[in-house]
Amino acid sequence: MNENTKHQTPNTRKASSAKHQPRNDAADGTLVFGIWCFFGVWCLGLGVSAASGLKTRTQHVLDLLRLYESRNVTFIEPDGSWPMVWDRARDAHVWDAEGKKYLDLTAAFGVAAAGHANPRVVKAGQRQMNKLLHAMGDVHPHALKAELARELSRITFERWTVAADVRRRNPGRKGSVRLLTSAATGKTIFCNSGFEAVEAALKTATLASGKRGVIAFEGAYHGLGYGALNATHREHFRGPFRSQLGQFAHFVPFPEAGQASRLTQKTSDDPLKEIQEDRRDACPTRERVEDCIQRLFRREQIGAILVEAIQVRGGINIPPPALLPLLRRLC
């Protein structure tokens, strides 16, 4: 493993030191590109250090960032040991500015899920850019926009409704009978980023239910826009803007697979603080989480539950498999 893996980003190990915590920034750029601690990237080669007294390419880039980029975006160690500066990538490998080779287990936040510089992706992009680089979105659309919306509906809502496990139990018979229902067309809102998608979901939930309340989970990160920030649990991000937030989110503990703990109830005038995890325990059980949610349903006007399938920035927290079906059932 590369020596610099000792420097951690905030979405890696839960015991990250305070000096490595991200600065606050509404542009959601605080997660630096030192990815080998995000899920873990293994150094497969060692570069040769530059001659003493000469700046490396990495140092040059970081110096430019210090001078010209907002300090709230990329976290840079004072000694320049963090972050790495990417130079090129191919398939599952990344090379930094000094020529060191890494195995990328993050897929660059998922953007390179098909592999870095995938020839099919590159060729398709070049072909489309030669024809039309940019249409006008919600004013003058391109045909591919309509086709993509249809495909997203086909592989999600239509698939779920046609092949859903809707079962009817017949008296006197073992097992169950699958009922096929008519396909429900899914509607798409195309967004530029994750936090925009979250804010679109929050708006949709309010319009559909007429209720402003949202249940989110402790440790959650949903973005730094003002709507998404309400449902982002970390006080580091929320604190400076609390006076401007709508305060419509209610947080419950996030269960993790294979672990169990208990919750304690604490008396408070603030309903957001009433249900809290006992920090002496690792995490709550699924049953206790369900109880917390049910009590919030009874007490508050809840229009949606917002959840990450895996909490990434919160520390790669994986819930028990039954959590998402439970939340769907409760909703």
Biggest β-sheet description: 4 strands, antiparallel
Classify the beta-strand content into a percent band: 5-15%
Helix content: 25-40%
Mean pLDDT: 77
Contiguous low-pLDDT stretches (5 residues minimum) are: 1-52, 167-181, 260-281
Based on the structure given, which CATH architecture of the largest domain is correct? 3-Layer(aba) Sandwich
Number of helices: 10
Return the string of H and E elements: EHEEEHHHEEHEHHEEHEHEH
CATH class of the largest domain: Alpha Beta
Q: Write down the Rg.
A: 23 Å
Structural class: alpha+beta
Q: How are the strands of the largest sheet arranged? A: 1-4-3-2
**DSSP strand tally:** 11
Short description:
By secondary structure, the protein is an alpha+beta fold. It has helices spanning 57-68, 119-131, 143-155, 157-162, 194-209, 226-230, 235-238, 271-274, 286-299, 323-330; strands at 42-43, 86-90, 93-96, 101-103, 166-168, 177-179, 213-217, 249-252, 263-265, 275-277, 302-305. 29% of the residues lie in helices and 12% in strands.
What does this 3D model show about the protein?
By secondary structure, the protein is α+β, with helices and mostly antiparallel strands. The protein folds into three domains: 1-137, no CATH class; 138-189, no CATH class; 193-330, Aspartate Aminotransferase, domain 2, CATH 3.40.640. Helices cover 29% and strands 12% of the residues. It is built from ten helices and eleven strands. Strand 2 (86-90) and strand 3 form a beta hairpin.
